[in-house]
Amino acid sequence: MSDVLVVAEHRRGELRDVSYELLTAGRELADSTGGNLHATIISGDVDEYGEDLNREGVDAVHTVDHGEEFNHGVCTQAVEQIANEIDAQYVLAGNTVNGMDFYPAVAERLDMPLVTDAIAFETGDGLSVIRELYSGKTEGTIDVDSETAFVSVRPGEWPAAEGTGDAAVEAFDADIDEEALNTTVNGYEEVGSGDVDISEADVLVSIGRGIEEEDNLPLVHDLADALGATVSASRPIVDNGWLGQERQVGQSGKKVTPDIYIAIGISGAVQHVAGMKGADTIITINNDPSAPIYDIADYGIVGDLFDVVPALTEEFGG
Amino acid sequence: MKILVTVTEVADADDEFEISGTSIADQYLTYDLNEWDDYAIEEAVQISEEHDDIEVVTITFGAERVEETIRTALAKGADRAIRVWDDSFEGQTVLDPSQKARLLAGVVEEEDPDLVLSGVQSGDVSIGATGVALAEQVGYEWAAVVNQLDLDRDSGNAAIHRELEGGVEELTDVELPAVLTIQTGINEPRYASLRGIRQAQSKPLDVMSPEDIGVELEESAIELTELVEPESESNTELFEGSAEDTAGQLAEFLRERGVGA
What percent of chain B has pLDDT over 90? Predict the structure, then answer.
């Protein structure tokens, strides 16, 4: 038992980026165990996906041709069977919404301890997983005192595997018990389409929890008007219903790439940063200099937004 | 019909804090109801208001201190509460979702709910796996990251939306009994009314030990051995001075970049 299994992810006809990152993370673990790196892709156009997953460092790809889209029942059964077949020591999946919908169940079935949202590994004498704790304010080392483990990996932390490998891409004949499938995926819906397309904006004035109350929103609208910018927001503002979903920046909202992104009262949680790190210039106004937004901001004002924002609006004649 | 809601208290760290051993020193922590669970409670209470004969029971793992948070859930409309605790857990952060799920599974087997609502994750340790692990342990169906829920009691089915990344939702039918992990934004959690707060004081809150619910925990295979504050990677160029000064410098920078011209 020294092999590593990576569960790749696809959605609506495309392999997701995290799949290639998982191959890199999986290679790192396989190098430490001296075992082979296996990948599996379940459902969809598995022949095409299987070839795409054959990147440098991959020893075998197991394809499971069953249905078009992710179904956690199918995925759970298939991953359990493949992991047992290859006697996997470590199994890796993406810490994604669909990942969260299957890996806790697989880890239970395989009786493997589960560590989620890894950002790095320490290998050597066994496995340690580095992950954030306390909303990203700290990083913890979690020692795994077990021969085997299931680890979910945060998207964007490992580079994508590249090149072409010489893996055997083979169909795996999973025995799927249809009786045990008690969920039916009926379709998909795009949300957050509105009059505003924040992904097209050149300048975004983006607002987060720091605005405190809905009644304070005019401060930001006034600034955006004075700058000729578009207003966007982090998740809590949209959850509260203060702005529409079409204005949400982040993992579950939109990815934006403006010339200038002004983050006001936004702490810079990883889910938010995933949606705006492609901005050309990031400016933050946030009174907490230890907030993670300062890890990514190019320019900043450590100050009270209720003082700074009106002053800035005034500078532009607002 | 019975709905069980898992309610967790989470620790929020101050901006400035010190680490003691493998946790943040207690004086820098503020404890509160987990944000995701607030939405799960609201969802359960709304269902109980829309349908007849629905009992909402909360289940919490924690020391006596968490009863304040549990009373908040009762004040928002839950009917009764269960707290599971053993003093041997004092000072430990349970990071193993399987262990947490095992404690909850003991209660689920006792209470036999039709629906279990659990927050997607807890705001402090953010494991995000307990609900689905619980479903697997008790043989329930499940769905993770639910942001819309329509219950059809006659057919024993929940029509749900799962919030995928990038503004896409998956529309799925889930057969009951099931565990659903609830995402923020699914509803608008209410504030507890004064009447609710008064009523909460007289609602049942049962305390049980793992033995009471027939659960014996093995030693966990995963252990937090080190906690550090990550080095700041900040290269941010700061504008310094008063609000007016900094706003003036930023305005000049923005004008140079052609903004607001």
Answer: 87
